[in-house]
Amino acid sequence: MRLLPRVIAYSCLATIGTRNVERPTCRSAGTHKKNAGRIVFDRLLAASTLGLRVAASLLLISLLAKATHADDVPSRLTLLDFADDASVDRVEARDIDVSRVDGESGSKLLLQSGHNIDWPGITLRPEGEFWNGASFQRIALDIANVGETGFELGLRVDNPGGDGQNKSVTVMTFVKPGESRTVSANLSDTPWQFSSPLKLEGMHAAPGQQSIDPAKIKEVILFLRTPSHDHQFTIGNVRFEEPVEVLNPDTFLPFIDEYGQFIHGEWPGKIHSDEELRQSRELEKADLVANQGPPSFNQFGGWKNGPKRDPSRFFRVEKHDGVWWLIDPEGCRFWSHGIDSVSIRFGGTGTEHRENYFRNLPAKDAPLGQFYSSSTWAFGFYASRIPFETYNFYTANLYRKYGDRWREEFANTAHQRIKSWGMNTLASWSDPDVYLQHKTPYVAFFRAEDCPTLQGAEKRWTTFVDVFDPQFRTAVVEGIETCQESLGDPWCIGFYVDNELYWGGNESLALWTLACPAQQIAKQVFLNDLQTKYKTIDALNETWGTNHATWEAFSEEAQTPDVKKASDDLLAFSKKFAETYFGTIKAELAKAAPDQLYLGCRFIWDSEVAVRAASKFCDIVSFNQYRYSVADLKLPAGEDKPIIIGEFHFGALDRGLFHPTKVPAKDQAHRAECYKNFLHSALTNPRVVGTHWFQYTSEPTAGRGDGENYQVGFVDNCDTPYQETITAAREIGNEMYSLRSSID
C-alpha cells in the first residue's frame, strides 16, 4: 500500500513525538477526513509515553493513507523485456544493427552502432496505441557499454506529434566504456501530481505540471550524438518506475515558505528558523577554516610548483606539448576552475499576480521589506505583466544570516568559498563588489546590442544585430566602457562578449540578410558584393535560378534563393558577416584592453562558419555545454585555438526544487559524480583551458523572471552549501594540475 508522502509522514511522527506541541496542519497527499484527523490528533496528544505516541503515530498514518490512496500502484511496470523475437521486430533502427541476447539478468537488445549519420538510433513503440505512465514519474532502461569507447546517448520520449522540442522530453547522458547503469527521463516535472487540476504559473517545472502527457507515450527514441566511432551497447528492462505522490490542491497553497522553500517537503539542510540559518553560518565557518584550498595554488590559483614562464602583466594562452594552458601573471600554468553569477542579483522571484503561492510575505515597511523590487525582465507568464513586483529570498536570507553587514559578508565569504572549494575563477555575471576586491581572478562580460537588428534574422533569445551598420562598432565601444574597471586589470582573465547567439546553419546569416528590407545596411553590402561579382542581374539569375528583373527589384524583394544553387555566394557572405562580427569586437578590445584576452561569445548554437570566424579572431573560443562530457569537444579541422566552457551544470530533485535542469542527476550523490566526470573529461581534453559552472546559487523555487527554477547552485536560496557537489569540486581542485599535466 502506498502511504502518505514520506515527508508528511515523517513530519507527523516528529510532531507527535514532542511534548509541548501545537496542533499541526498536516497537508496530506490527497483528500482525507479532516474532522476524523483532528479527533485522532487530540487523542494522540493525550498519550503520555513514547510507546503510546509511536503506536498512535502509526495509527494516524495508516488512517490518512487509506483515505488518500484507494488503489495500490506497483513500484515499477515493465514495458519491454525483449524476451522474444517479436519485440525485436518492432524496433526501428537507423545506422544500428539490432539483435537479441540472453543473459543471467534476462534478455537484452545488443545494439551495434555505425557513425555514418549524425544521430544513429532506434525507436521503440508499444504494441497498442500508447504506453500509459500516468501513475509514474519516469521511464527508465538499463544500459551497458560493451565497447571500448564512451559515447553520448540521448533518451527521448514522445507524445503524438513530438518532434524533440514540442510534446517531447529528451535527456542526454555520457556512457563510459565498460559502464552499466540506468538511464531515465522524467514524465512528470516533479514526484508530485494533483488529485484534480491546479495550474501553477511562472515556473519551468512545478508540482502537478507535466511537459508531456504520461498517459500517451507514443514512442521512445534512443540515439547517439554525432559519433566518430562505431559503438556497442546493450539495453534492457524498459520500464515505468517511481510512483508519483498525489497531492490535494485544496490544501496545497501556499507552497513557498518565509525562506523561499517548498513547504510540503523535508530534506537535509532545510531551514526552519533564523536560528538554524545562524547555526549553518557557524558550521560553515569551521569548514572553511579546515579546508582553505589546494596547496598547489599560487595567489591567482595557478600551478605554484609547475613549469614557469616569464611573468607578464596579464593572463595569456600558450600551447605546450600539444596541450593548451592559460598562463597567469606570475608565469604559472593556470586552468580556470570557476563558477558563474557569484552575485546577489539573481534570487528574485515574481510575487505579484501570485501572492497566494507565498506564506507570510513581509510587509513593505518591515526590515525584510527592503528585498522587494520591480522587474522588467521576463519571458513566459510575466512577459505580458511587465513591470511586476519580485521578492529576493536569497538576499533576505543573507540578511537573516549575517545582519546589517550582509553585503560585505557575502563578498568575503564568496572568496573564501571559491578557494576552499578548489576553484580559482569568478566567472560571468559576478558582482563587481566581489571581483574588484582582487582576491580571485575573474572574467568580464558585456553585450554589443544597442544597434539595429538584422530584421530578417530568426529570433531565439535575441535577434542578431546588423554588424555592417556603423552603430555596431559604437555598440561594441559602449559595451567595453561598461567594463572600465577591468581594462588593464591583471586579475581579469579576459572578456566574454555576448551570450548564446543564434547563428542558424552555415548559410543562415546570408539568407536572413536577403529576407531583410532594402534599407538594411547588411543587405546593401551583400547586394554590392553580388554586383561586383556578377556585373549583371542576368548573370546572377542564371547561377541562382532566379528571375529578378533588376538589381533594384532584387533589393526590394525578401525572397530567398535555392540554397544549393546559391550556396557559394551564401557561404561567402555568411563568412564575411561572421568575421565582421568577431573582427570588429577584437579590434576594439585591442584598442581599449591591449594584451587582454578575448574569450568569444559563448556558443550554445553554432555553425562551422561561425566557429571558424571565432577561431580566427578570439584568443579563446567559448562554448556553453549542457551535456555530461566534453571529451570529444573540438574545433573544425584545421583550427587550433584553446576552448573554455562558459556554462555547464547538473541538478536533482532531492533538495526541495522542482526542476533538475536539462542535464539531470538522480540525487546529490549522482550530481557530484556527474561534476567529477565532466571535469575529468575537460581536464584531459588538450583543447579545454577551463570550465565555469552555472551558477553560484540555485534559482528561486518559484522561478525567476523567465520561469527557470533549476537546482543548479553550489549553495541553495538559504545560502546553505550543497556539500556533495562541494566535496567533488574540492577533489578536482586538489588533483587538477597533476591530472592536466599527465596528458602532456
Structure summary, number of beta strands? 27
- Assign an overall shape: globular
Tally of separate helices: 17
| C-alpha-based Rg, rounded | 28 Å
- Fill in the CATH topology of the largest domain: TIM Barrel
Under CATH, the homologous superfamily of the largest domain reads Glycosidases
CATH class categorisation of the largest domain:
Alpha Beta
Mean pLDDT: 89
Largest sheet: 6 strands, antiparallel
- Report the helical percentage: 25-40%
N-C termini distance: 58 Å
Low-confidence stretches: 1-70
Named at the architecture level, the CATH assignment of the largest domain is: Alpha-Beta Barrel
Structural class: alpha/beta
Question: What's the short version?
Answer:
The protein has 744 residues and is of the alpha/beta class. It has 17 helices and 27 strands.
Structural features, described:
- With 744 residues, the protein is an alpha/beta fold.
- The chain has 4 domains: 66 residues, no CATH class; 174 residues, Jelly Rolls; 287 residues, Glycosidases (TIM Barrel), CATH 3.20.20; 132 residues, no CATH class.
- The chain contains 17 helices and 27 strands.
- A hairpin with a 2-residue loop joins β14 and β15.
- It is globular.
- This is Beta-agarase.
- InterPro entries: GH.
Keywords:
single chain, Beta-agarase, 5-stranded antiparallel sheet, 19% strand, TIM Barrel, Jelly Rolls, alpha/beta, GH, disordered N terminus, 744 residues
Itemize the secondary structure elements and their pairings:
Layout: H1 6-16, H2 34-45, H3 50-68, E1 76-80, H4 85-89, E2 92-94, E3 96-103, E4 106-113, E5 121-124, E6 136-145, E7 151-158, E8 168-175, E9 180-186, E10 192-194, E11 219-224, E12 231-243, E13 245-247, H5 274-290, E14 316-320, E15 323-327, E16 333-334, E17 336-339, E18 348-350, E19 372-375, E20 388-392, H6 393-402, H7 406-420, E21 425-426, H8 432-435, E22 442-446, H9 470-481, E23 492-497, H10 508-514, H11 521-534, H12 537-544, H13 551-556, H14 567-592, E24 597-598, H15 608-617, E25 621-624, E26 643-647, H16 668-683, E27 688-693, H17 723-741
Parallel strand pairs: 10-13, 17-21, 17-27, 22-23, 23-24, 25-26, 26-27
Antiparallel strand pairs: 1-12, 2-5, 3-4, 4-12, 5-11, 6-9, 6-12, 7-8, 7-11, 14-15, 15-16, 18-20, 19-20
